[in-house]
Amino acid sequence: MTEHAIIERLNEIKHIVKSEVSNRWLNMKEACDYSGLSDSTLRRSVRKQVLKASTSTGKLLFKISDVDKWLNG
After folding, report:
1. Interacting residues of 32 by C-beta distance below 8 A, sequence separation 6+
2. What is the four-CA torsion angle of 25, 72, 40, 29, rounded to 10 degrees?
3. By CB distance 3.0 to 4.6 Å, which of 30, 33, 45, 55 could disulfide with 50?
């Protein structure tokens, strides 16, 4: 395998891994740990509809990709 082919394959693997991780759901504690922010900050952002969250289970759940978008503006 050439160096170029190896780099291409690694980029493909990186894309697959990043895609799977960003679709993972976090509970409130995990989202706080991930973002480094408090529970009240996350709840306030959800209430203001700035941060997307699911409440279908009766608890707030956050997609990593949504938390990343919110953190990065």
Report:
1. 38, 39, 42
2. 30
3. 45
